[in-house]
Amino acid sequence: MSAAPLPTLMLVPTGVGCEIGGYAGDAMPAARLLAAASGCLITHPNVMNGASLYWNDPRIHYVEGYGLDRLATAEWHLRPVRRQRIGLLLDAGIEPELAQRQIQVAQGCRASLGLDIGPVLYTDAPLQVTLELGASGVSTGSLGRPDALLRAGERLRDAGATAIAVVARFPEDPASEALAAYRQGAGVDGLAGAEAVISHLLVRHLRLPCAHAPALDPLPLDPQLDPRAAAEELGYTFLACVLVGLSRAPDLIDHGSLQPGDLTAESLAAVVAPDGALGGEAVLACLERQVPLIAVANSSVLQVTSEALGLSSKVLMAESYIEAAGLLLALREGINPEALRRPLAGVQILT
Q1: Which of 56, 156, 315, 316 could form a disulfide with 161 if both were Cys (CB 3.0 to 4.6 A apart)?
Q2: Is residue 349 part of a domain?
Q3: Pairing relation of β-strands 251-253 and 77-79?
Q4: Three-state SS string across 170-226, please?
Q5: Do 244 and 329 sit in the same domain of this protein?
Q6: Can you give the pLDDT at residue 255?
Q7: Are residues 146 and 49 in the same domain?
Q8: pTM of full prediction above 0.85
Q9: 209, 246 in Cβ contact below 8 A?
Q10: 181 and 102 in a common domain
Q11: What is the pLDDT of residue 1?
């Protein structure tokens, strides 16, 4: 008889250049492994979005980052659902041909995957996305017209959408050195920070599952492309994975609506995050409630380590996601991870 699922939070921060998870969907194999080990994995679009590639697993719950933070701090809860009706929100700044490509993806997902998609709505003004790189090397960005984004989200919600996929026109510079380096496996995803701004804003305002896909022109062929960047260059849009992820994304529930089967902060039994990126709200909230933290060696531009936070004695270290999966299995089966390491310390004797 297999052990009961161990609800686990998997975090890979956006736009910080993680070695695993810094590209579109390259953390999906790790997520699939952790889902198999835990039986219940809660993670965010940065992990699961692979542009034209995606993976549906009923053990994986797709939750936008702001929603994950609210779950970890016990402000919101998750309710698994069979189906979401996905409203498609398109930036008025997208050129007509590129916008039609997004609509064709939605039509294809309806016809081939049976997803419930619609209505489609353009914002009443271009969103005016700008991209920035912080002093730490983390990507970020801003919106010139957040009001247009929120109005469109409200209209889709009022028209019956229970989740929202957003496509915004992003600025691009195909000749930039940063983009060339990223395509060859170095640097950070320059789009990711602005994407997080968009999705966080909508989820905070509407408390609906939301995720974002950028609208960009296809890039010229690069024979030296890093394998991790390949998923981003397979088609005309990044939308397919977002629609699949949102199609069964859990509802975001407040305290007054709890039902049996909902996932709450008290349900969380483990959290897995890169060792250099332990300063996020969700990780710190879980540590405060003494949820076991598995810190995986997964380098990025951040250096917020267990040592820097003075938490080394409270953290289970893993050299890879394979080792992290083994630790999750141990926790799920009620095995003390320390019993698997050598040298094995003796039991504490009180005097």
Answers
A1: 156
A2: no
A3: antiparallel
A4: CCCCCCCHHHHHHHCCCCCCCCHHHHHHHHHHHHHHHCCCEEEEEECCCCCCCCCCC
A5: no
A6: 78
A7: no
A8: yes
A9: yes
A10: yes
A11: 64
